[in-house]
Design goal:
- The structure holds 2 protein chains of 2 kinds.
- Chain A is of the alpha+beta class.
- Chain A contains 4 helices and 3 strands; from the N terminus they run H-H-E-E-H-E-H.
- Chain A is elongated and about 60 Å long.
- Chain B contains 14 helices and 2 strands; from the N terminus they run αααααααααααββααα.
- A two-stranded antiparallel ribbon of chain B has the order 1-2.
- Classes of the chains: A alpha+beta, B mainly alpha.
- At the A-B interface, strand 2 and helix 3 of A face helix 1, helix 5, helix 6, helix 8 and helix 13 of B.
């Protein structure tokens, strides 16, 4: 999994699988982005080193008044204030929003895709939850 | 942890693990056959992950390196309007790179690692950005031909089977159409200008035509990964198919520009109903891709400089964030 967690399904992917990674990065690798990074040893087994101390944020944008905030994407930032500014520059260059939320990716909990079957109740045999189930009223006005 | 680890599935799996793998594979196959979308936490074959990671990261690098040939003309744009437009376009390219790095990160590679591969010269990006931009008309030709080819390539990618990639492409395609139109307008204006200006436009089209056709990748019979990518619904059309479509569009559009394409062999094949073009120099393509193009080392060097020169900003931002957090804790 991504060392920074998974922007698309950040919750347990980010925190379960690689809970240690961001912390290690933040304390030991402050200068990971300096000139020296180029000469750092090659990684053959994956991106476990050179963690950026910029953590992952999920961005939600309200496109206009009256609508919900919708997930727009993710970005890296050192803190919430910078995350908001980066989100503005990255996701609203063309007036796409009137309000932005940024949420640390690791703060999001999500349903586990492995339990698709059991977590979401089967809709089978539950047609009666939909208006289209009731056909006898067809042709009756305003119903 | 990282994608590479996932690709080397241990030979000995416990029965439960084997069962989970088999179930994952069956689920994956069903999603693909239904032409639905794979999301990051779904089970996916290691080769699928690897292919996507390669394609998306190369695509991201192309956007980032692609800022350079155009940024070259920001200070010399012929008017304030053109300068503003060019800056907006280059800013878009940076944005596109970031959307794509995000998509690639969902596959298990960190952005820092990808960035490092790029400045170490280990990563590939589109060969087109290794050609120099020697006149203002090149801004027009890049917008019209290069971004035009990119759009042709990218519109079908909006339906790529990997969700995050498709979503990034939707966003990118929306923004690219402005890029192509502004390029077309630059060429049209030059074409309607003085004879020297028209010549400059024609010269730019002459130089960018063949490299832009090669952006679609090698011919189908020399494109080993294409078949599998199409079976996985990552690619929707073959390289040659897209190239032929692109040629057809350009034939129409170049007339409006009052210019010509430097290709005497362009014709519409009545039998196949496809546009055909003259031979392309695939040796040149391979040379440029292998790092021996006109500007390869300059592009990577510039990227490294920018990355290193920006280090203090990134560090300062982290130091500030830490200080603020400490203050909050103390309060």
């Amino acid at each position: 999994m991504a060392p920074h967690g998974n922007p698309e399904a950040p919750a347990s992917a980010a925190s379960e699988i690689n809970r240690e990674a961001p912390k290690v990065a933040a304390t030991t690798n402050v200068d990971s982005t300096t000139a020296g990074s180029v000469s750092a040893p090659d990684v053959t087994s994956g991106g476990a080193k050179e963690e950026s101390p910029w953590s992952l944020w999920e961005v939600f944008v309200r496109s206009s008044r009256g609508l919900s905030h919708v997930h727009a994407g993710s970005l890296h930032a050192p803190d919430a204030a910078m995350a908001l500014r980066n989100a503005r520059d990255l996701y609203t260059r063309r007036n796409e929003g009137v309000s932005i939320w940024v949420v640390p990716a690791e703060a999001i909990s999500s349903s586990d895709p492995d339990s698709k079957g059991s977590f979401f109740e089967s809709p089978q045999g539950k047609d009666y939850r939909h208006a289209t189930y009731y056909t006898k009223s067809e042709g009756v006005k305003h119903l | 942890m990282a994608s590479q680890n996932l690709q080397s599935v241990p030979a000995e799996l416990s029965p439960e693990e084997q069962e989970r793998e088999a179930a994952g594979e069956a689920y994956f196959d069903r999603i693909i056959s239904e032409d639905s979308r794979i999301e990051p936490r779904d089970w996916m074959p290691a080769a699928y992950r690897k292919t996507l990671l390669r394609q998306i990261s190369q695509h991201a690098h192309s956007e980032i390196i692609g800022m350079q040939p155009e940024a070259n003309w920001i200070t010399r744009a012929p008017s304030l309007k053109r300068k503003s437009i060019l800056m907006a376009k280059v800013q878009d390219e940076a944005g596109h790179g970031l959307y794509l790095y995000s998509a690639a990160e969902t596959l298990g590679q960190s952005r820092d690692q990808m960035m490092e591969d790029l400045i170490a010269g280990k990563a590939r990006y589109s060969s087109i950005f290794n050609y120099p931009t020697i006149s203002w008309a090149d801004m027009g030709a890049i917008g019209w031909l290069v971004d035009g080819a990119a759009i042709c390539n990218q519109v079908p990618l909006c339906r790529a089977s990997y969700g995050p990639y498709g979503r990034a492409m939707v966003r990118i395609c929306k923004e690219e159409s402005f890029h192509q139109r502004q390029g077309f307008e630059i060429l049209l204006e030059l074409s309607n200008g003085t004879p020297a200006q028209k010549q400059m436009a024609q010269d730019a089209v002459n130089r960018w035509y063949a490299p832009s056709l090669m952006m679609f990748g090698p011919p189908d019979d020399d494109s080993p990964n294409s078949k599998q990518s199409m079976a996985w619904n990552i690619k929707r059309f073959s390289n040659d198919e897209l190239r032929s479509r692109f040629v057809g569009m350009m034939v129409e559009q170049v007339r409006v520009l009052g210019l010509t394409l430097p290709d005497k062999d362009i014709r519409f094949n009545e039998e196949t109903k496809k546009w055909e073009h003259g031979p392309l120099d695939w040796n040149e393509f391979k040379e440029v891709l292998a790092g021996r193009g006109p500007c390869n080392s300059q592009r990577v060097e510039r990227r490294r400089e920018a990355h290193e020169n920006g280090a203090w900003v990134r560090e300062a931002a982290v130091a500030y964030a830490r200080k603020q957090a400490q203050k909050e804790n103390a309060a």
